[in-house]
Amino acid sequence: MIENKKSFKALNQNSNDADIKDLIYKINKNKIIEFNKNLFKDEYLCICSGGTTSSCAKNNQITVDLRKNYKQISYDKNTGVATIGGGVLMGDLLNYLEKFNRMFPIGLSKLPGIGYILTGGISPLSKRYGLAIDNLLNVKGFFGNGDFFSLDIDNLNKKEIPIWEGIKGAAPFFSIITEVAIQTFENFPIQVFDGFVEEEELKELIAISETFPKNFSFQFIFSDNIYVYIVGELKTEEEKDLAQKYISIFQRFPSLKNKIYRNLNQINFFPKELNIFELNANLHSEVISLLGKSLKGYESEFVEELIEINAAKPNKACYVAIQQLGDQSMFENKYSSYFIHREACWKPWIFASWEKNNNHDKKLVINWMNEAWNKLRRFFPYIHLAQLHNHLNSHQDELKLAFGSKLDELKDLKRIYDPSNILPPL
Ligand SMILES: Cc1cc2nc3c(=O)[nH]c(=O)nc-3n(C[C@H](O)[C@H](O)[C@H](O)COP(=O)(O)OP(=O)(O)OC[C@H]3O[C@@H](n4cnc5c(N)ncnc54)[C@H](O)[C@@H]3O)c2cc1C
Description:
By secondary structure, this protein is of the alpha+beta class. It folds into three domains: 5-65; 73-186, Uridine Diphospho-n-acetylenolpyruvylglucosamine Reductase, domain 3 (2-Layer Sandwich); 190-405, Vanillyl-alcohol Oxidase, Chain A, domain 3 (3-Layer(aba) Sandwich), CATH 3.40.462.20. The protein has twelve helices and 18 strands. Strands 14-11-13-12-16-17-15-18 form an eight-stranded antiparallel β-sheet. Strands 4-5-9-7-8 form a five-stranded antiparallel β-sheet, covered by helices on one side. A three-stranded parallel β-sheet has the order 1-3-2, with no helix packed on it. α9 (299-312) runs antiparallel to α10. The mean pLDDT is 95.
């Protein structure tokens, strides 16, 4: 079972630097049963799909790296359904689908793996196509107890419905997903307005974006400069006419460039000048993601709060960013999910980064992250659990704010399907 653990590389620098206990590339029932018997207390399996989070590898824990043996992608032209392995990156998925003029509503980066899908998956196109979990059709994998499962949305029995719902948003706590089938969509041109704006302009743009139709969304990063992205999918003639209306509205913001991309796959969000997604080998980081309702009437207060948060940040590598959801993402599909805050219209995330091996710096930065979170709570009281933080003090708070009254049901699922706690703890 022992593979060369030194060969492990992750995009997330914390995980990349972890002194892992062991690395495995392939799982099966017997291996998992072995873990059930042999893992020490507080030992559990870290699962790596895209390797973009701080929880896919940890000191003295075993990592199951799905990127080697679970990279398969296929597409069925007759149904529009793509089937992908548990180690597929969202960028690879889009590249593959582009050959068929199809796309999947991925997030603002092509780097994440299927952790993006399993934890909800908020796309700049979610207002039209829903969350990534809303487009799941079939899921295969192993429970923490070793049992293999294959679940199909059109064929669930009574016992399988709570499992299906759990997989939509909370899969990492009780299962290892080796394959998912997802609904894909035809590609359409995407209009993007982007550029640096001033604080007052940002307030105005937030107010405008609150009235956007479902094919338009707004995202921005607030660092020493403010960079905004307005994304509009142009599917119908009516939407093309509407885009003209926005072109004239956004003329008031002279720094915004306006460009039409052939499809979602052609867009690389956030310019390199901002250095925000730079995978700096000397820095470690954590990200916390929040959820909240409409900012109507609070645009100014919110931006003032961001100004204070930005002024208090301990270093230039920290920032706050936000993406817009709503419209279709407010609705569950056939079954419900563990993304319970369907009323959410905004997801801000706080990116906290420090010089690695500098505990003093780390403490300051995590404090700043928590203080920023406190300041933003009145606008965004809930959590999007896109990153697992069982190594941080905020973990229990985050679980409650992510799963609310469903947390007890999730604990039940974990008791049944991961009885020895071989997967990340709740
Ligand atoms: C640059 C960047 C931009 C992002 N933009 C967005 C965005 O626009 N919208 C959005 O919603 N999110 C966004 N995210 C967040 C991202 O989608 C989540 O953090 C996601 O969990 C990362 O998935 P991964 O596979 O890369 O992570 P990994 O680090 O590989 O895994 C993350 C966690 O998910 C679990 N996991 C992963 N795969 C499996 C599996 N197959 N079975 C069971 N458990 C598994 C693991 O336990 C692990 O702890 C962004 C992240 C980054 C780095």
